[in-house]
Amino acid sequence: MTAHSIELTVNGRNVSGMAEPRTHLAEFLRGPLGLTGTHLGCEQGVCGACTVLIDGKPQRSCLTFAVSCNGDEIRTVEGFDDDPVMTELREAFSAHHALQCGYCTPGMLVTARDIVTRLGDVDEQTIRRELSGNICRCTGYVGIVAAIRQVTAGKTAVAQSWNFEARTEAVAASVAVEAAPAASTAAPMDFSMSGDGFSVLTQQVMVAAPVDQVWAALGDIRRMAACLPGAAVETVEGDRVTGALTVSFGPIKASFAGEGEVARDDAGRTGTVKGRGRDARGGSSATGEIAYAVRAQGEGTIIDVTVRYKLTGPLAQFGRSALVTDFARRMTETFAANLTAMLTGGETAAPMKAELNLASLIWQVLRDRVRRLFGG
Ligand code: FES
Ligand code: FES
Q1: Cα 103 from chain centroid (whole Å)
Q2: How does residue 139 score in pLDDT terms, banded at 50, 70 and 90?
Q3: Ligand 1 centroid to 5 CA: how many Å?
C-alpha cells in the first residue's frame, strides 16, 4: 500500500512523516512520534482511551485516519503541561482516587477537560452523560465524576475568561437499543479507499420481492427514505431532492441537512444518488454518491450497491473501515428488511426512528461479535 506524506502540528510542534492510508492517528502518534500517552483499548471507537484533541475537539484517534489529519492541530495528553485546567484535573483525579490501572486515564482527562472548558459548572448527571463515550473498567466512575465535578464547580466565569467556548447546551444521549433485523439480508461488505480520498463500500443486498416491484420502489425517493432510520426527505423537484439524516452517538449528535441529485436508467436498471450535507451544529460535512444496480435472483432481487463518501469534521473519526463496514452492513440489512416488509405488507424489521442511533448500532455490532465468538 502506498504511504503518503503528511504534516501536522502535534502539541505545538510541526511534525511530518509517512502514513499508509489505513494507518490510524493513534498508531502514528504512538509509533513514529513516540507519544505513548495516547492509549489503545478497543480500537473500535467504543472505549474512548485513545481520545485526543483534533483542532480543539475531542476525537477518537483509533478511528481517525492519520492521512485525514494532514494540516490539523493535534493535542495529546502529553501536550497539557502548561494548561491550568488540566493541572487542576490531574490534582483532582489524584485526590479523588479517580484512577487505578490508569489505562483509561489519558482519554478520561482529555474528555474531562473538554467538559470543564466547554460546559463550565454542570451537574453530575451532565458529567456522566458527557463521559458516556469513555469506559473505565476499574473505578466505578464515582471518583472520576467527583473529580470533574470539583473542577467544574463555579467554573463558568473562569472558563469564559480563558476564552474557551462556553457552550451550555447539553446534548441528550439516547441509549435505546433497536431490534435487529430478523434475518440477514446482505452479503459481506468490501471497504477500500479511492485515490481521491473517498471511502468506498460495496455490497450486495438481497430483497425478498420481485425485481419489477423493487425497481419501481427505488424510484420513489420518499418511500426509500422511509426504509432508512434517521432519513427524512423534505422536497423533491424533478431529479433534485433535499432532506436530512440524523445520527446520534452518545454525546455526539449530528443532523446533516443536504441536497442531492437522483439519476436512473430504466433500460439498465441502474441508478445514482449524489449528495452533500452539513451538520450546522457540530461542523461535520459529508459528500458522496450511492450507485446501485438491480437484477432478478430467482423470485427475489439483488441490489448491487456502491457507496463513495468523504466525511470531514468531528464525525470523520467514524471513517475507519472495521466500524464503518459493520455500521453500513447493519444499515443495509435494516434497509433491505424494511424494503421487503414494505413491498410484501409485512412488519418492518426495525421501528422507524427519528434518528439513527450509532451507540445502539455499536451495541448491536458488539453483541453480534460476542455471539460469533461463542458460536451463539
Ligand atoms: S481505542 Fe477504544 S475508542 Fe479508540
Ligand atoms: S483506571 Fe483502569 S480502566 Fe480506568
Answers
A1: 23
A2: very high
A3: 25
Ligand 2 atom nearest residue 137's Cα: 3
pLDDT in tens, 248-293: 654 456 678 889 899 999 999 999 988 888 887 667 788 888 889 9
Question: Does the global pTM surpass 0.70?
Answer: no
**pLDDT score, position 107:** 97
Measured between alpha carbons, how far is residue 306 from residues 228, 266, 319 in Å? 16, 18, 16
Q: Please, what are the domains in the chain?
A: 4-79 (3.10.20.30), 82-161 (1.10.150.120), 190-373 (3.30.530.20)
Whole-angstrom distance, CA of residue 99 vs CA of residue 105: 7
Which residue owns the Cα nearest ligand 2 atom 2?
Answer: 101
Which of 38, 43, 136 best tests ligand 1's pocket when mutated (most atoms within 8 Å of CB)?
Answer: 43
Name the residue of 24, 28, 38, 40 to mutate for ligand 1: max ligand atoms within 8 A of Cβ.
40
Per-residue model confidence as pLDDT tens digits over 288-338 = 888 899 999 888 889 888 888 777 766 666 655 455 666 666 677 777 777
d(CA 341, CA 339): 5
